[in-house]
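Technical annex, item 7. During the second reporting period the consortium partners agreed on a shared format for inverse folding records so that results from different sites could be compared directly. Each record opens with the tokenized structure and is followed by the designed sequence. A conforming record, contributed by the partner at site C, is shown below for reference.
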């Protein structure tokens, strides 16, 4: 079976030889091509080549079309990105410097016609042509409630969120939600078949129960009014087990990317066969683990998750500082312990 077929089998509970295995190998692509991050992310063909080389080297199932989160800010007019060879690129100059800028902020009528989309489109075309029929192509999309952090900075966004200027706040969020809806369609049309809905505001670990109910949930409903087909519920590495039942009832997501800080067995019991439970290794700790410790943790995750199917093994941010031997140990263990000897 191809990786895409294995993912579909896991999602529907059909027989498969093993669980799907997803891995985030974004920034390592620049190292593989012996480029600086600034050069690497300047061309869609470089990003695609980096993804394809990483997938071929390690053998996991997915590729990603993500450049860096600030790429979305560029579609709003950001033209200054800070690159570092030790971590992910980030926004260096915010589009929104004061509240007057919110009124002037414009959502592109057609995201795909914006110059900042061109390299993303190239990357997706290459990935679609090379592996679109056999492998999951993942896209990362920032929820409306999170987008302001990369447009104005987290400190100013928190001031606006918690302040009294609710009309200004909601004007910004309406624009961010409209952008999200356009972005989802653009990525789907370009060939992405797994879309990650990134919403740290979607967990009570970040905003608390009251704000989740009164703020996060209504804006999520606006973002997702067109449906959640192929969308993954993702709150960064924050735990969100306590909101899964309500999210299931409200949106019917097909996949939940469970935090390493969560009780995986609890999450699997809540989700059951209604959706795909994604068990995620704490890859920050992998920086200091031995290969033996890495293997043991992968086994623990697989032993909990694969019972009854509907399970995927995944990683988080995969820092560049993770030793190569730990990456190899992790993936070898995932293929070994994620196997279904009886084919189901």
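Designed sequence (site C submission):
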């Amino acid at each position: 079976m191809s990786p895409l077929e294995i993912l579909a089998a896991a999602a529907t509970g059909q027989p498969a030889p093993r669980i799907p295995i997803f891995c985030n190998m974004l920034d390592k692509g620049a190292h593989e091509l012996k480029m600086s991050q600034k050069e690497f992310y300047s061309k869609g063909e470089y990003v695609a080549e980096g993804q394809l080389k990483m997938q071929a080297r390690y053998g996991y199932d997915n590729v990603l079309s993500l450049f860096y989160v600030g790429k979305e800010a560029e579609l709003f007019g950001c033209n200054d990105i800070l690159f570092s060879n030790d971590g992910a690129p980030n926004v260096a100059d915010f589009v929104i410097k004061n509240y007057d800028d919110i009124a002037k902020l414009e959502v592109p009528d057609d995201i795909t016609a914006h110059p900042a989309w061109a390299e993303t489109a190239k990357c997706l075309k290459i990935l679609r042509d090379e592996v679109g029929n056999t492998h999951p192509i993942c896209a990362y999309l920032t929820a409306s409630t999170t987008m302001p952090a990369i447009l104005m900075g987290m400190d100013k966004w928190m001031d606006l969120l918690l302040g009294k200027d609710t009309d200004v706040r909601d004007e910004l969020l309406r624009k961010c939600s409209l952008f999200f809806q356009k972005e989802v369609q653009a990525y789907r049309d370009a060939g992405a078949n797994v879309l990650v809905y990134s919403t740290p505001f979607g967990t009570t670990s970040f905003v608390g129960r009251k704000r989740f109910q009164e703020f996060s949930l209504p804006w999520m409903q606006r973002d997702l009014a067109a449906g959640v087909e192929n969308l993954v519920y993702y709150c960064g590495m924050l735990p969100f087990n306590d909101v899964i039942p309500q999210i299931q009832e409200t949106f019917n997501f097909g996949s939940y990317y469970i935090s390493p800080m969560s009780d995986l067995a609890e999450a699997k019991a809540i989700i059951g066969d209604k959706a795909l439970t994604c068990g995620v290794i704490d890859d920050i700790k992998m920086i200091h683990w031995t290969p033996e410790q890495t293997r043991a943790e992968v086994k623990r995750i697989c032993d909990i998750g694969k019972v009854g199917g509907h399970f995927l093994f995944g990683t988080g941010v995969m820092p560049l500082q993770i030793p190569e031997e730990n990456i190899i140990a992790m993936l070898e263990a995932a293929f070994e312990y994620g196997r279904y000897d009886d084919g189901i």
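The chain has 15 helices and nine strands. The radius of gyration is 20 Å. All partners now use this format for quarterly exchanges.
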